What does this fold into?
Amino acid sequence: MAKNLIVANWKMYPTLSDSLVLASSIKGHLDELSAVEVVLAPPMSWLITLKQEWRHWPRHLHLAAQNIWSEDQGAFTGEVSAYFLKDVVDYAIVGHSERRRYNSETNDLIREKVHACLRWRIKPILCVGETKRLFDSDNRLDSYRWSVVEKQLSEGLYGVKGEDIERVTIAYEPVWSIGGGRAAPKTYVELTVARIREYLKGKYGRAIADQVTILYGGSVEADNAADYLSLTDIGGLLVGSLSLKAKEFLRICRLASVKL
Ligand code: PGA
It folds into this structure.
């Protein structure tokens, strides 16, 4: 079974010195956590410094961009392409709900970003999630609401071939659960993620779909991480606020390292 993947999305919080301290505290404990893949997504501006800081990163510690641009080069002021980052990061977060919201990113643009990542051997972490709960008062999946997530998947993955889908990670993040203290109930995540897996099976076939890592994200803490990690279809977590606290984040990594 594949190792759990734990992604730390530091968003636009840490300064350069904060990032160096945080990365160093995490790195210092990683030898004991070789059974988990850890991905740090610092602000774009600190990626190169972090990359250069350690010539020898542990093999199970990776860097990610929080975003990339879809084209390789050109008149795109302020953007950074997957082509430019190909030797810097192993992963890139694509389509995070904050980018969909504040930068009006559409599924079409997000799909182009997924393809740009794949073109340059960066593993895209495609974020999907609904803004309103998918379940009705009887805890049944509302098909109209589910169609939002399905559309994000079908448009975000359009043109991704079976041989490439294994390099894509899907991060299921109900938008209403992001931001601390509003984690989605375990059964809710279980049912929705099973639906995502079904969708992938329908598109790529069972054998390939089973290889795709699906993460849960949204108010993940050390106290609820084990619940999500125990779910069959979950292969890791995308952690926001809590990943800025090295001790708490390492607790989550430790929990993830025992599920093998
Ligand atoms: P959160 O953020 O853990 O602070 O809810 C998750 C995310 O935005 O990816």
